[in-house]
Amino acid sequence: MTIDDLIDDFALIDDWEERYRYVIELGKRLPELPESARSEDNRVRGCASQVWLETTVGKNERGEAALTFRGDSDAHIVRGLVAIILSLYSGKTARDILTTDAMEVFGKLGLVEHLTPQRSNGVRSMVERIRRDAMAAAQAA
Question: What is the side-by-side strand order in the sheet with 92-93?
Answer without folding.
Answer: 51-59, 65-73, 92-93
